[in-house]
Amino acid sequence: MKAIVYTEPNAVAVLERDMPALAPGEALLRIDASGICGSDLHAYHGHDPRRKPGLVLGHEFAGTVVASSDESRLAVGQRVTANPLVTCGHCDYCLQGRENLCANRGMVGMSRPGALSEYLAIPIRCAIPIPDALASVSAALAEPAATALHAVNLTMRALARPLPEARVLVIGGGAIGMLAAALVRSYGCGEVQVAETNALRRASVTRHLGCDAVDPLAGPLPESAFDVVIDAVGAGATRKLAIAAARPGGVVMHIGLQDWASEIDMRKLTLAELTLLGTYTYTMADLRATVAALERGSFGTLEWVETRALSDGPAAFADLAAGRVAAGKVVLIPETV
Predict the structure, then answer these.
(1) Is 325 exposed, middle or buried (0-12, 13-18, 19+ CB in 10 A)?
(2) Nearest alpha-carbon partner for 145 in 87, 112, 186
(3) What is the pLDDT of residues 149-168, one digit of tens each?
(4) What is the pLDDT of residues 281-334, one digit of tens each?
(5) Distance CA 270, CA 141 (A)
(6) Per CATH, is 145-278 categorized as 1.25.40.20?
(7) Does domain 2-141+302-333 have CATH number 3.90.180.10?
(8) What does the radius of gyration of the chain's CA atoms come to, in whole angstroms?
(9) How many angstroms separate the Cα of 142 from the Cα of each of 46, 139, 165, 168, 179?
(10) CB of 207 within 8 A of CB of 232?
(11) Would you list the domain boundaries of the chain?
(12) pTM score, two decimals?
């Protein structure tokens, strides 16, 4: 089968790989659509020591079951997406339903071969059926959309007042930022601003989400003005911006991990009594809720998603790295589909 393989920093290639073996408790999927994540791009640049050269990248996908070790649980022909986190199922976090915090977790596209390929083996317990009305390209966004949904739900728990009353700033116009902005809009929040340095993506945000999109490099954003700030980038500069933009008593939700460490304004955090939250992926319950939300249209039309052939994967990575892509998400389609 063909797959997108990380070969060295700033290089991926379409290479032939063996078909995945069907292990007990697993199903074999024909990949119908798979997305390029920001973490894949991080690996592409050689910035993720967990992803080594030779790895098939990708963990956002939708596919069709072509073989199953247990058809009573997952039948051949079923369309599915899946949680790329492969957890142990028996630690305290898994038993609490917070399996995203499992210390024994593995991950598709990191500790096991990824989904930027023609076929993928996945544990049956990770799979979630896709409704007939939900297109595969949209279903492939379930993974980043669930990350946004999990983050927004955690944010709402910390707010003193309901989200529709909040003024929201989303930092980053990539997939997570656009999905988070679309979701808070669907929850009834009328004041949503997106900060994005890429002019192509700002135009996409304005056109497809109807949000005010601003360039944070063109001038300072208002300080202490937003009840909710969602940092979907996670760089040192965006963390500083997030803290500065949050109003007293507000909530800063940190999703992105572009930089692993940086300073933040602890004085502002303390004196303004801000709530700073971190979030990591989502739970299976979140992923199921996200599939239903995608079917309902809670994340909008998703017309801002760009599709390309799997064979165009190396060029897509290069274009994303160079900032030549307006779309917040590029989804690759294998030629076999």
Answers:
(1) buried
(2) 186
(3) 999 999 999 999 999 999 99
(4) 999 999 999 999 999 999 999 999 999 999 999 999 999 999 999 899 999 999
(5) 37
(6) no
(7) yes
(8) 19
(9) 26, 5, 27, 23, 10
(10) no
(11) 2-141+302-333, 145-278
(12) 0.95
Cβ–Cβ < 8 Å for 101, 284 = no
Both tokens of residue 110?
A: 């990191």
Residue 61 CB coordination number (10 Å): 31
Per-residue b or e along 8-21, where b marks 16 or more CB atoms closer than 10 Å to that residue's CB: eeeebebeebeebe
In this structure, what token pair is assigned to residue 96?
Answer: 């609490």
Residues 111-114: contacts with CB under 8 Å, at least 24 apart: 111/50, 111/86, 112/86, 113/3, 113/17, 113/20, 113/55, 113/56, 114/3, 114/4, 114/40, 114/55, 114/56, 114/57, 114/58, 114/59
CA distance 29 to 66: 6
Distance (Å, whole) CA 201 – CA 196: 7
| Contacts with 292 (C-beta within 8 Å, 6 or more apart), sequence order | none
